[in-house]
Design brief:
Rossmann fold; binds S-adenosylmethionine; 7 strands; alpha/beta; globular
């Protein structure tokens, strides 16, 4: 993988593994939070590192609004071209503070999702803490990442995920393998990490 996600925007939606990852992430999200139930209809969701919006477009029909943020201009351009009615696609780096608060309604999210993003960040623990701070009390944080077999491998271990969610002071933490992807004769497990904001 390159550091420049712009190179992947064209054709991202045509990649079977990428589409499968998004559909299994959504299925595990629905299983975890009953997202397709009527309680979510008035809720606001942040899809952090949304890419072309493969997860956002699955969530959007079940909620009031999805704010979809990504640092890749090309990924956001693909998402904008989809013209999804209640998805606000925003280019910028929330972690660096260069997304205008007024532009995206920066806080008070009911749900923040990060699908295959966190393991690519230079400061994963710091990022989770920032994102957790954008939830209102009772809001949910859910991430999915490749499972690393040890602390030095690519991806995140169960332990890394659990301790990052704890350090962000989330409650009701759940970390487990939710699906796996078979690609290039390898089986790659995917972890879901979830927690609830328990502070004001
Ligand atoms: C593996 S892709 C996943 C995209 C999408 N979530 C999906 O599942 O199809 C990782 C994405 O994270 C984005 N990303 C990386 N660092 C980011 C940051 N600091 N803030 C927002 N997005 C970021 C990249 O631009 C890229 O679109």
């Amino acid at each position: 993988m390159t550091d420049d996600w712009n190179d992947y925007a064209d054709g991202w939606d045509d990649n079977n593994d990428v589409r499968y990852y998004a559909s299994r992430a959504f299925a595990s999200l629905d299983e975890h939070l009953d997202l397709c139930g009527k309680n979510w209809k008035s809720k606001r969701v942040l899809d952090f590192g949304c890419g072309t919006g493969l997860l956002a477009e699955k969530i959007a029909p079940h909620v009031a609004e999805v704010v979809a943020v990504d640092t890749s201009e090309n990924m956001i351009a693909v998402l904008k071209a989809k013209n999804l009615p209640n998805v606000r696609a925003v280019h910028g780096d929330m972690l660096a503070g260069n997304v205008q608060e007024v532009e995206i309604g920066f806080s008070g999210f009911d749900l923040i999702c990060a699908s295959s993003v966190c393991a690519f960040l230079p400061d994963y623990r710091g990022a989770v803490a920032v994102l957790a701070g954008l939830l209102h009390k009772g809001g949910q944080f859910v991430q999915w990442d490749w499972q690393a077999s040890d602390d030095n491998g690519f991806g995140l271990t169960l332990h890394q995920m659990k301790t990052a969610l704890e350090a962000a002071r989330l409650g009701s933490i759940r970390v487990e393998q939710v699906f796996e992807i078979n690609s290039d004769a390898r089986t790659m497990p995917v972890l879901m990490g979830a927690g609830i904001c328990i502070t004001e």
